[in-house]
Structures are given as C-alpha cells and as structure tokens.
Design brief:
Order of helices and strands: HEEEEEEHHEHHEHHHHEHEHHH
Distance between the termini: 82 Å
CATH architecture: 3-Layer(aba) Sandwich
Radius of gyration: 27 Å
Helix content: 40-55%
Structural class: alpha/beta
Strand order of the largest sheet: 7-6-8-9-10
Shape: globular
Number of domains: 1
Number of helices: 13
Low-confidence stretches: none
Amino acid sequence: MTRRRDHRRGAATGRSGHVTLVAMRWGLSLAALVGSLAVAELSLRLFSPESPFARPPASDTIDPYATNPYIVTHRPGLQQFIPGSTYRAERPSYVVDYEINARGLRGPEIGPKTDSRLVVLGDSIPEGHGVAFEETFVSELDRTLDAGGWSVVSAAMQGGSPLHYAANLPRTLGLDPDAVLLVLYENDLWDDRTNESKYFGLPLRDVETGSRLWGLARRSFMPRTEGPLEKRIRTNRDTELPPTKPDPISPIVVGAEQFQLQWNMSQAYLDVLADELEEREVPLLVAVFALGTLVPRMPEAHGLHALALERHARAWSARRNLPFLSLFEVTEAALRELPWERVLIPNDGHPTAEMHHRLAVTLEPWLRTNLH
C-alpha cells in the first residue's frame, strides 16, 4: 500500500513538474516575443522613414505659397503640420510666425481639459493665414468664451475641405470636443476635387502617435482594402463632370452646370463628419464665410458661386437640424465701410486681423446661444 501511494505521489509530482516546465517554456517564449516586438518597435521609431512625426526642419523663413517643408502629406489624413515646427511665413504684405503644437496644429499646446471644449474645423481662414495666431477669430473666441466655461481649440488646416475634415475625424475626436464648429469657405468644392485627385497617390502613414509596429502592419494591409470613405473618394474622383469654362480670374469658381453635382459629392463627406459626431452626441455648428460680390475686380461668377454654396450649406444644415450662421453680411458690411485693404490682406485675399475681429464679434453671441 505504501509502495502504491508513493507511486501515485511520484506520478503527481511528475505531472506537476511537467506543467511547471511547460508554463516556463510558454513564459520564456512570450517574454522572447514581447522582447522582439519591443526591439522592432524601437528600431522602427529610430529608423522608419514612414512616420509623419519626423523631427521638424530647423526654423526658417518661407514663402507660404511655395512648398511648405513643415507640412507632411499622407493617406488617410491628406496633410498636416509636423508637430513642434516653428517657422516664419513672409510675403510683401506680412510677416507672421507659426508655432505648431504637439498635436500638429497651429496654436499653443493643448493641456488637460478643465472646461467644455469647442473645436474649430476649417481651412486657412480660421487657421489665420497672414495674421498672428493671437489675432485670429479662433483665438479671440477662446478669450471671450472663457467666462462661459468654454475653451476654443483650432484644428484648422490650410487646404482643408469637407474631404479633409472627414479623413481627419480620428484626430478631431482625439481632441475630446464637447462641440465642433465647422467653417466652410467658397473654395471648398474646388479643394475637394484637388484632394480627391491626389489622395490615392499619397504615402500611407500613421496620423496618430501609437505603435509604429502596428502601423506598419496596418499599412501593409490597407492597400488591399478600402473603407467606406475611401470607396466614396474613389467614386467621386472617377465621376465625370459636365464641361464648363474655367474663370481666368477666379479659378476656384464652380460653374452652374457643375455646381449641384460637385456639392453632392462634397456633401457626402460632410455627412460622414455629421453622422459620426451625432453618434457620439457631439453638437455640430456650421458657419459659411465668403468674399461675396464686393471684392474689387472679382467677377460676377465668383459671387454667384459663393451664394450657391451658402444656400446649399444652409439647406443641408436645416435638414440635419444643425445651427447655421452665414457670415456674408459681416463681410459685405466690412467691404462697404472700410477700404478693402483693411478687410483683405493686399495681394493675398485672406482676412486681415481687423476682419478676424469682426468675425469673432459676430460669432460670439451666436455661439453663446447655441452652445449648451
């Protein structure tokens, strides 16, 4: 009997030892795998040329209408500033310093959220082309809305358009917005066509700071798959437009025979943005800025195009029950009351600091009414 018990005890001990040995082997294999992945991740961070977050070039003075070395282009985000960049944009009519924060956005660093946050989407208008960031209407709104418990963060990017806003939704949501203000501009349809034409030729890069190894695996897989947004981009890109005569003075104008079709294509990107924000219960507010018909030497077709954009954006906002504000009146009032050089930067066409102030004064009460 004693001999049998000893035999069973020895068998149990043997099984226990075997299990322990197997567990040790699995543990060592797992540790080796984790170590290998860590080494691969470190190597990619040190040597991978694919990251858009490479060290920014040394600070320099550039022509903002030439190729900007402080901007990277990539798919899916189209383009963004390199985080940490500093440079000076200089033209005969202005000299402006740019400071890009760690999020790759123009403006100060974005700290932990201590109050409600309004994120502003738009192109070079809200980005503040040609003026100091402190003089932009976004920066002024941040100061004036502070008393109401709101901070305002700019996610505007030169060359932005509805496609850009839809493609960069993860970055926008990463800012943890409590509301989003979308500022549309009269060249948005033209910019969407430009962005669609180059989209699939852009390199695949990661737009967020995460695992570089996971990004490499994702990039290897992405070329063989297309999500709903990329399928829409491809469909829009391949859509034939009715012939129209380009305007030699105002090339951003979309002819009447093309406008409805081009608006429908851009509206699909706006719907992507609005649907996602609605699902997350983040209010979306829409404003339209345009130069209208009063700018000197601007052809009538330009004004008609701007008015058509305003009407369609207003109707789209109404269908989606979104607060809407047209900034036409404040722009045209400024052009009637002031020399146009005080409204628009000479030989450039972007709003001056004085015009940014007027936009902020117009937007503030409307935002206070619609932000809850």
